Amino acid sequence: MFKKIVSISALALALAACESTGDHGTGEGTFGGTIVPGSYEDFYESAGDRVFFATNSSHLSGDARATIAKQAEWLDKYQNPPVTIEGHCDERGTSEYNLALGERRAAADRKELIRHGVQADSISTVSYGKERPAVEGHTQEAWAQNRRAVTVFNE
Amino acid sequence: MFCESKMMRKYFCILCAIIATLLNITTLRAELEINVTRGTIEPMPIAIPPFSATSASNASLGDSIAGVIINDLKNCGLFIPVDPGAFIQDPVSLQQAPHFSEWRLIKADSLVVGKVEDSDQGNIRVEFRLYDVVREAQIEGKAFTGGAQDWRRIAHKVADAIYKRIIGDEGYFDTQIVYVARERHQGEPVERIAIMDQDGANLHYITHGDSLVLSPRFSPDMRFITYTDFGQTQHAKVYLLNLDTHHKLLMGDFPGLTFAPRFSPDGGKLVMSFAKNGVTSLYAFNLQTRLIHQLTREPVIDTSPSYSPDGSKIVFNSDRGGQTHLYVMNANGSNIERISFGQGSYRTPVWSPRGDLIVFTKILGGSFYIGVMRPDGSGERLITSGYLVESPCWCPNGRLILFTREARRGDPRLYTIDITGYNEREIQTPTSAAHGSWSPLIP
Fold first, then answer.
1. Is ipTM beyond 0.85?
2. Which of A60, A96, A138, A154 to probe the B interface (max B CBs under 10 A)?
């Protein structure tokens, strides 16, 4: 799992736009060959699949807004494929409140996408609270990676 | 609407038995009392020889039953079992009558003498007598009849009867705990809901790891669990799971996530959180009529609701004031009042079955705490702390708190602690365990 994160980061650094370093949202990506335009990999490389939050907050930072703007542009270009935004929290909270906070984060992300013109009915939201961290660590760095909203394509 | 429960009938078999109160019950409470409300606790030395058996097949049962009783009483922190190696009186003469001087010599304050007999239709009859060694008098005696396979429940009932006679409160040994068992299969996290006896025995799983599950709680009649299941679509929803059939039923048709359910004390309603568009509010769901009643409506997060034992009020945590704090309202959603005012975040409140206290999780300065306060918010007292402690709940007599403790490396485990902060101990489980909830005394 950690090897994969390193290789994605290396790839991401090569592209000016992408700032995420977590693991791939859903499914296995084929980073070896050409990226198909309109595919999830294309979305991931063009815009990035996630935004991050401060502790106990669902406020969208400048970086987060920039990412979401790029996501909206991409989604609009490819006719609003149905997506789900997953809200997550770090482990430094209680499980039920974190389910609610994750939902609030996903909702904030969604609202911002809609503000940029993405169709509301193409975006659903879920929350995992703190139950599915991206990074299994117990440091400030790990927690920062886990306070996230991730956009995945529906099957 | 719900099927007749095989489990109910089985438990009835035990209780339909004769509970006979035997001779010579004297009231010596003043002498044989442990004061558990003051800070210092002096556990009572109690001698529990193996229960005698009248047949060869019951011989090991006599040892096992005594073993379960010894464990229960030792683990509650209020009794010290006397080392059987020190016993002087032989088992045969003991069945005739205790030689009290020989028990005083080894410093036993009380003595339990029991026996196991075959009863009709494959049942066993377990009888015990509890003696005050100093006064040389029997102070309790009961008999329980039930299936031989239910010997552990019978042993817990004996332990409860001893506890009640000496401590003065209802015991809590004939109970179960439901929790979320966590493992990794091929590196991926897998959660299953597990139920065990409160001493860790008879562990079995009632969900099978197909989906993320959280926050299981028993119904008051113990025929159901309510819990949150993410299903295959990853949308958290509240379900009812029938403990006989293991079938699950979706609770309400909410257009969003539902979670954090708890039963009302009469079992007629569930209170739960419903989250949509960044707002989480409390709703009551009537299990009979299936009607949904919205209780709170601020554009905030309201969650972790818990009914008072008389069903008239609900305590919950809300971030409507900025930080998360505890609030109490009437069960219909009216008259919301804040009750916590200290520094830090207050979460997961649970009302004691005795009505006198609310237990909660507190997060302050990067540390987690379990604490209690009175329902008006006064008397806040922190009981334990750690890197991560959360999800507290009460044992049915309101004296012990069950909670989840997770060290920095992960691997959550279930712990119990007396409300005085005394006797914190881990419940052994084969996997990581979190979000435990304690059953009532088994009906």
1. yes
2. A96
